[in-house]
Predict the structure.
Amino acid sequence: MPATCLLHRPVDAAAHEPVLVDEVVRLLAVPVGAAVVVDATVGAGGHAAALLAASGPDVRLVGFDRDPDALALARRRLAAYGDRAVLVHAPYDELADTVAPVVASTGPLLGVLYDLGVSSLQLDRSERGFSFRTDGPLDMRMDPTSGRTAADLVDELDAPALAALLRDYGEERFARRIAAAIVRARPLTTTGALAEVVTAAVPAAARGGVHPATRTFQALRIAVNAELERFGASLPQALEAVAPAAADARGGRIAVLSYHSLEDRIAKRVFAAAAAGCVCPPQLPVCGCGRTAVVRPLTRGAQRPTDAEVARNPRARSAKLRAVEKVAPGPSPRPEER
């Protein structure tokens, strides 16, 4: 199903405020010197524009996105930066191979940003099928030019597989009831029809608060786009690719903005493993594991937006920011020395 190009439907990208933009700029901008910064989810270019504006003239930004419409918006927004902005239509699990030639011609990779999840620009367009708030085709593909749609999954999976998907990706406690209701009602081809089926399947007493279809739509979107698998494959590439700290320069930094626990869990686990040094029992006289810390944390746990930002930009409400910096290689302290 071809997507309607945003160039034929004007959208004010500047009206979509990037989340925690000041903190992202503080962490990742490179004011002096030649370097590369990556926006792994460039979207409409909000974070990318702020990073380029705060960085020196010899810094280039590589922006990834699977959505050609988002890239068209980002290209317009970043046009003033000329060849300092390199935009690629690719998923971020191709980060290492895509960024390597830019690093070779420009300078070290000193920043990587992941702003995960679905963008407000996608949610706001009913024809993309991400939202239950307006009726549209049941699509949910971030790249509308390829892959299976949410309607395909809803039609093809049996009830146990569908329930597992809703439970694992949506943390939906009524997964079995919803899956059975979907199977009885299919084929389902629109967001409105699916939302009605899901709402009816959820007990009335449990329908308060968020919309009953929220977790189902999240689960289908994650599955359609293989979001967790791609992020889990990309983050180690970023850790490997960023430059370590040197005597006269900071190390490469990675910042992750996540919006639900599944994404945040991956970032937390990968960063914790990279920050861990020796794991030998304290009673051993010398280290036998040989493990050294690769990064140091830049945030204490997960940083949250302020109440003022949430009031101004509701999309920030569930955001969590984690960031690390790659350290210079060297011996890692024993557990009792930390």
